[in-house]
Amino acid sequence: MMNTDTTAARAAKAPAFTSDLSIDEISEAIRMMLGMRQIANQTSLLANHWRQEGLEDFADDLCRGLDEKIDVIEAELRARPSSADIDDVLTLISITLYPGKAGREDHPRMVTA
Q1: What span, in angstroms and rounded, lies between the C-alpha atoms of 21 and 33?
Q2: Average pLDDT over residues 86-107
């Protein structure tokens, strides 16, 4: 389970790398990152099936790295004034990472490790 307190603290310490981006640009970046994460997750599952431990570890590390970046972007979006566009991006993150789940805080990421 992700520690949202740690994620929020990390986002507060780091410079907001989304501050110069429009919501459309952030949305596109999130879509790409979520796509990469889905591919890395599938790669990890296949590598596990094929008993390719090195590839599985690489894919799991990639998932974790993307998770960290997505968490920071999500925290930065939550710190902005609410808007329909921001809500759409936050919903995209939630339904992609937690399909069928009602809320983000109660559900662990779909990590294979």
Answers
A1: 15
A2: 77
The answer to whether the CB of 89 falls within 8 A of the CB of 27 is yes
CA 9 to chain centre: 16
Query: Which long-range CB contacts under 8 A does 82-91 form with residues at least 24 apart?
Result: 83/23, 85/23, 85/24, 85/27, 86/23, 88/27, 89/23, 89/26, 89/27, 89/30
Q: What is the mean pLDDT of residues 78-83?
A: 91
Helix 53-79 × helix 84-97 angle, to 10°: 160
The CA distance from 38 to 47, in Å, is: 14
Query: CA 69, CA 83: separation in Å to the nearest integer?
Result: 21
